Protein: DUF805 domain-containing protein
Amino acid sequence: MMENDMFGHTMWAGHWLWMLVIAIVVVIPACRICQRTGYPGWMGVLILFPVVNLILLYFLAFADWPADKKGDRNG
Structure:
């Protein structure tokens, strides 16, 4: 019934645009946090995956950071 709606395709494109914005807003800080703790920045992309994001947060919260061992503290 909604296939003939003129807003059908724009809402779909808007949905993907919104998801891209949210992904950028979340992934960039996660990558920076991973880099500052001494882990590779690509680990921040894991924040996009359900359940894996919780594992990443707990890992970062309770693991020994390589940056602490090197003395490269940023704060």
Observations:
- Residues 12-65 form one domain.
- The longest helix spans residues 8-37.
- The mean pLDDT is 84.
